[in-house]
TrEMBL record, chains A, B, C:
An annotated Gene Ontology molecular function: hydrolase activity
Name listed for the protein in its UniProt record: Amidohydrolase family protein
Pfam families according to UniProt: Amidohydro_2
Domain Amidohydrolase-related per the UniProt entry, residue ranges: 211-392
Domain of life: Bacteria
Protein species of origin: Nonomuraea phyllanthi
Alphabetized InterPro entries for the sequence: Amidohydro-rel, Metal_Hydrolase
Hydrolase recorded as keyword: yes
Keywords for this protein: Hydrolase
Length: 392, 392, 392
C-alpha cells in the first residue's frame, strides 16, 4: 500500500493512528446487494440496467482492499463480496473495517433528524466498533429544526436558537453546517439584519419540518453558530464541493456544484477571522485547490479531502498532490467522511495513507524533503493538526 | 504506444475496434499549409508572425504519429508533412488516417447548414474511408433553422419543430445540441412557457438565418428534442466545456468557458431523468471532473473527453486519469470529436488508447485491479457502453 | 534538479539564461524571522500559534534549495536559515539568489505607490544584483492614482490619464494591470461611455487616495492602456487567478478567486484583438487550464504560471504539465512573479526549469518529441517568446 522504499520513520508516521475529524455513523443492519449499491453511490439511484455501482473506482477498491478484511481473495466478485458481508453480519463487518482503519478518535456527525437515523451507529458505537475514542460534531441544521418546531413566535426562534447552540456547544468538539448543500456557499457573507431574520423566521415557523433553504436563515444560523463556537473555542466545519446534498435530505433539489466552491467563502472567512473561530472546509473536490488557497491565505481556515480519496480510490494520489500544492501542512486534516457503509471509513484511511505516502515518497526520492520533515508532516496531517484544532 | 508490460488480454481490449460516438466529417479537398494550420487551431486565426500552429501538443503529435502513416519518419518537419499530405491527396490521407484509427462505427454530426459543408465527408463517406459502419447524429440547431426559415407564423414554428424533430429522430441514433456554445449551459432548466416561446419565435422569424442564441428558444428546442428522443429511445448529446463555438458559426461571440461548465446542467439533468432520455456530455474539458461527478450522480448522464485527448496529445493521460476519479466505468464513452482533418480522428483514437492504457497499467502494476477487470473496463469504454446507449 | 537522462542540448536549453518577464523588487533590508514569514505567505497574517509559514511547500523549498546558496546544508532548520540570512546581510543574500536564478533580463513591476516601496529594490537594482538587464513594467493603477490626485476636474482626469499613459509608454516595455484583483475579471468588456466615465471620475476625485475599485474607471483605465499600448507596440499584462490582491493594497477586501478566472476575459480579448495589443495573463492558477485555452484561441493572448511554481515547489511539475495541455508553445512565458524576498525569484527559476525539464523528459522518454524540438521549445518559453513579445 505504501511505497516500498520509504524510510521507517516515515512509514511509521503514515501508519500511526489517525484522528478522523469528520465522519458519519454507518448502517448497523445487514444489507442486500441492492441496498449496498445504493449506499455506495452518491446519487441515490440504482445503476442503469445491465450495469452496477461496483463498476466504479470505489467498487474496485472495495473488492481489492475490503475483500481480504472479510477473508476473501482480492478482487472477489461483487456477489461474493455482498454475500460474505451478509454471512459475517453487519456488526462483525463494521468492527473489522472500522478497527482496520487504524483510527484513534472519530469525530462523528450524527446527521439530520429523520427517517433512518436509528439504522446508523451512534458516535459512541462508532468508537466502540473502531476501538477508538469518539466525540460528537453538532450539525447546526438539526438544532435549527428542533428550535423551529418548538418556537411559537419568531422572537422565540431567535432566542431559542442561540440558547440551543450554546447548550449543545458545551458537549461537542465542533459545529458542522451543510449550508453549502442547502443554498450554496455564494451567500451574502454579512450578518443578516434582525428585521430580515424575523421576517424569514415567520415564514419558517409555518412549515418547520421542511429542510432549511432560506438564505437569510442559513446566514443567521451560521453567524449564530460562530458566536456560540467563539464562546467555547470550537471550530465550525463547512461542507464544500462535491456531494452537495445533505444526507436524509435527498428530496431537495441539489445545489449546482460550482455554487459549493469553497473559494466563495473568502469574504465570509475574512469576517470570521477576528472572532478566532477556525473554519474547516470538508471534501472540497473538485475545488480542493481553491480550498487549499483559502487555507494558505487565512490563518484560521483548515481543509480536508473528505470523500475524494475513498471515491477516487486508485486515483486519489493526484487529489492529495493537488491539495499539497498550496495548503500549509499545519492546515490539512484527515477525515474519511465515512457514511452509509464502513467500507468508506476503511478505504478513506487506506487511500489517505496511500496518497500521502506517494507524495512523500516522491519528495524523498527527489531529495526535496528530509525524512524527518516527511515524518513530521505525516504526523501533523494524520493527527497533530486535529488535536490542536479540536483541542482533543 | 501502450505500456510494454500490459497483460495480453488488456492490450487486446485496448486495441479492439472502437465505437466513435461523436465525430464530424473531415475535409475532402487538398489543403495548403495555411489551410491545414487554420483547421488544427480552435481559434480560427493564423498563428502570430514568426510562429506556427504546429508548435502545439497537437502539432507535435501530428509529426510524431501521423507522419509514419504517410510513410514519413517520425518528427518530420511541418513543411515536409504538409507537402507529403498534398502528394498523397486528401482521399488517400483520409483513408489511411481514418482506417488507422481502428474504429468499427462512426456516429457523425453533419453540422450546421452553411458554407463549406460540401467540403466535408458525409457520414456514409466517413464510414467508407474508415472501413466502418456510420450513423447520423442530428444537430437540433440545424433542424430548428430549417423550421424557422419555412414557418410563416410562430404557431407554425412550434408545430413544425416538433414534427421535424420526430421525423429526423426516425433515422438517427441520437440528437446533438450545441446550446452550450450558443447561450451557455447556465440556462433556466425548466420548460419555457408556451407564451414566452411564441413571443421569442415571432422575433426569430424576422431573421431566421441568424444563429440561434435566444435562450427561450434554445430551451424550447432542448425540451422538444427531449420529447422526440423519448419517443424513439434516443440519447441527447450536449456540447460542454472547451471549444464552446459551433463549427460554421464562428461569427458568433463565443460564450465564456465557465458558462459551458457541464456541472451547471445538474438541475436540467434532474428534470430529464424521469423521462428516461440519456444525456451525453461532450468534451467537458477543463470541467471534466464536474462532468464525471454528474455522471456518478445521475443514472442517465454519460460523458466523454472529446477533443481533450487529441489536443493535449502527449499530456492526455492526466485528463483521462481525472475522468476516472469519479466517472462510473459504465458511463464513459469514446469519442474523437474528429473534425476538419482526419488527423483528429487518428490522434483521438491513439491518445485515448494511450491514456487509458497508462491508467490501466498503473492500476495493474499497483495490484489495484485484476487484469480481467481492466480488460472488461477497456471494452466497456471503447465500445460496449456506446452499443448499449445508442442501441447499435 | 533536472532529469538525469536529458540530452545535452535539452539540458543546455533549460539551463540557458531566462527572461523573467514579470517580477517585483525584493526587500533591501535585513529581515527578522517574523518579517520573513510574513513575506513568504500570501495572506499577510502570522501562522497560527504553534505553527510556522515554513511548513509549506515554499518553506520546504527554501530550506532545500536556497540554504546551500547561503552555504548551509540542505534542509537547514528555519531558525538557522533566517539567522544565516541576517549574518550575510540582505544585499549579499539578494545578490546570491538573484544571480543564482540565471536570468538575463528582469522586467520589473515597481508596484503601487505607497508605504514600503522604498524598502524594495528598483528595477535597476534588481538588474545589478542579478547580473542582468532590467526594464520597467508600468502599473497602470499607479498612473491612474497620480492623475486622480492632481486633476482638478473630471475632464482633466480623462485627458490627463491618456497623456500620462502615453508618456510612460515611451519608457516602458509593457503595461501591467491588477484590475482583476481590484474588481474581478468579470467586468463588462466594452469601452465605457464617456458620460459614465465622467460621472465615475467625479466621485473618484473626491477621494483619490483610495485604491481604485470602481468598475467603470477600471474599464476606462484598461481601454486607455490598450490605446497607449497600441501606439507604442506594447503588451498589456493582466493579473489573473490566485493572489488576487494588489501588493500594498492589502486593506482591500479581496476579490473572490473565481472572479479572477482568466477565462472570463474571453470577450475582452476578442475586442482587443483587432488592435494588435498582446494580452499577457499572469499567474492564472488554479485557472491555468482556462488561460492556456484562451492562449490557444486568441492569437494575441500569452500566459505564464507566475507564482504557482515557486509556491507549489516540489509539486510544480503538475501545474506546468497542465499548462502544456493546450497552451501553444509560442504563447508560454517565464515569469517568477518574484516579490518580497529574493527566494521567490530563485525558486521561481529553479522550479520552472525543474517542471519543464520533467515534462520534456517524459516526452523524450516516450518518444513523443525529438530532442531538437524539446530544446527548441525550452528556448522559446525560457526567453525567445519574451524577446518577441516585448521586443527586447
Amino acid at each position: 500500500m505504501l511505497p516500498v522504499d520509504l524510510p521507517g520513520t516515515v512509514r511509521d508516521a503514515l501508519l500511526a493512528p489517525l484522528v478522523d475529524h469528520h465522519c458519519h455513523g454507518v448502517r448497523r443492519d445487514d444489507l442486500s446487494r441492492a441496498a449496498f449499491e445504493l449506499l455506495v453511490n452518491e446519487g441515490g439511484s440504482p445503476a442503469p440496467p445491465g450495469t452496477t455501482h461496483f463498476d466504479t473506482a470505489f467498487g474496485m477498491a472495495v473488492r481489492r482492499w475490503c475483500a481480504p478484511v472479510l477473508d476473501l481473495e482480492p478482487h472477489a466478485p461483487p456477489a461474493v463480496y455482498v454475500s460474505r458481508r451478509e454471512e459475517l453480519g453487519a456488526a462483525e463487518v463494521n468492527r473489522r473495517l472500522l478497527a482496520g482503519a487504524g483510527v484513534v478518535a472519530f469525530l462523528v456527525d450524527g446527521g439530520a433528524d429523520g427517517v433512518g437515523d436509528a439504522d446508523l451507529l451512534t458516535a459512541t458505537e462508532m468508537g466502540r466498533h473502531g476501538g477508538a475514542a469518539a466525540d460528537e460534531l453538532v450539525r447546526v441544521e438539526r438544532i435549527e429544526r428542533a428550535v423551529a418546531e418548538s418556537a411559537p413566535l419568531a422572537v422565540d426562534y431567535l432566542d431559542g436558537l442561540g440558547d440551543a447552540l450554546a447548550a449543545r456547544a458545551a458537549k461537542a468538539v465542533a459545529f458542522k453546517s451543510v449550508a453549502g448543500a442547502l443554498c450554496g456557499l455564494d451567500f451574502d457573507p454579512a450578518r443578516p439584519s434582525r428585521g430580515s431574520v424575523i421576517a424569514a423566521a415567520n415564514r419558517r415557523l409555518s412549515d418547520p419540518k421542511r429542510p432549511l433553504t432560506d438564505e437569510v436563515l442559513l446566514r443567521h444560523l451560521l453567524w449564530s453558530a460562530v458566536d456560540a463556537a467563539r464562546e467555547r473555542g470550537l471550530p465550525l466545519q463547512l461542507h464544500a464541493g462535491f456531494r452537495p446534498a445533505a444526507p436524509g435530505e435527498t428530496s431537495l433539489p441539489w445545489v449546482d456544484l460550482h455554487r459549493a466552491d469553497p473559494g466563495r467563502l473568502n469574504e465570509f472567512a475574512g469576517l470570521v477571522q477576528p472572532l478566532g473561530v477556525p473554519i474547516v472546509l470538508l471534501h472540497c473536490y473538485p475545488y480542493h485547490r481553491q480550498a487549499a488557497y483559502l487555507a494558505s491565505l487565512h490563518p484560521h481556515v483548515y481543509v480536508d479531502a473528505g470523500l475524494a480519496p475513498p471515491h477516487a480510490a486508485a486515483a486519489s494520489a493526484r487529489v492529495m498532490a493537488e491539495l499539497l500544492e498550496l495548503a500549509p501542512f499545519h492546515k490539512l486534516l484527515y477525515g474519511s467522511a465515512c457514511h452509509g457503509v464502513a467500507e468508506t471509513g476503511y478505504l478513506g484511511a487506506l487511500h489517505y495513507r496511500q496518497a500521502l505516502g506517494a507524495a512523500l515518497g516522491a519528495r524523498l526520492a527527489a531529495g526535496e524533503w528530509s525524512p524527518a520533515d516527511a515524518a513530521r508532516v505525516a504526523h501533523m496531517i494524520g493527527s497533530g493538526n486535529a488535536r490542536r484544532v479540536y483541542r482533543l
